[in-house]
Amino acid sequence: MNLRSISMKYMSFDIITVVLYTVFFVPLIKAFFFKKGTEALEEDIWSIEKNVAFIVEFFIALILTKNIVILRNFGFMEKYVPIGFTDFLDGNPRLSYILILPILLCIVYYIGLLMIKVINYFTLSPLVSLLHRFYSRRGEAAKRILSSIFALPRALCYIILVSFFLNWSTLFVFNEKLNTYLNESNLYIVIVDSVINPITKSSFAQSIPNILNDSFKIVEIDESKNSSAPNVSSDYKNRNVIVYYNGVTLDEGVKSNKYIKEEASNIVSGMSKDKEKAKALYNWIGRNVDYDYEKANLIMNGNYSIPSGAISTYESRKGICFDYSALYVAMARAANLKVRLVTGEGFNGTTWVSHAWNEVYIKEDKKWINIDTTFYNGGNYFNSKNFNFDHRGTQIAGEW
To answer: SS3 for 224?
Structure first.
């Protein structure tokens, strides 16, 4: 990658990028033109420490919220929280963050500040004395430059915080225009991928597929008009329309063969409950199929040369969201389960992207449940009460 391509990638001035650069440079410029004397250095350092502490402890609070409230690790919710309140949070996963996150943030933030003050008592005072002597001996230009350098950590804190709030706002505010702006900002995507996701999701960020936007494409061909156009939500009943999913029809995508049927029969052998069968198929696909990033990139560029659907996915042991879902349909049908292929949007950690998953009917419970084999390595996506936290816009593409 040459210098020009690098500059084009990170210096593209869409609206989100402009906002982020503004947030970053304003503190530096302000510090340069409105420099403070040496008597304010300790205050500046303390301000930097608080900014850094807030970011670190915000992420810690997020991790605690996810593990305690969402994933129910450590057994805290079961032991100390009334069942009625936990059921309420299960039914309203976004409120888990809105209600619990601020409480945990306050706790860890003030604990963190107390620890910093103790450390400062033994380390900051001697350091400030040295900085006083160094700063006072510099010229006017050097003092302005030093002021900007002292403001650099604060500027980094600001740009990370703004990126974080933009990132999570897409979960709580369904705004397609905002989602488009975020997708267009290379700077925002770099910050999310490099800083926010590794911290907020830890190993989860490394295991869940980074689903690429536009790697799942639905195209309708209206034979009566001999034209094609992307459309997800049309009514096909009174039209002669063929719908293609990543270059194949739905019937072609879910088509099975004797090997898939035999595999499914072996997986559910000896099982009598629908839920048990559905979970076994979910586990098998999640453990045996890998996300195909090469195929995702090809489809993003309109190249459908790699076959899609259940058969090709079973044979190659890799695919993208439609392939995972099509294979689940084929296996569920072989196991005599009622199943749906569903399209909509999934949150990939950065933005909402086109996605596909499944619903399966559980006779003993008399209800349909959600499953997402593509997200298998990212957590529990089999009948999760928090499934709708990162899935939205459900459209039933087919039912068998």
So the answer is: coil
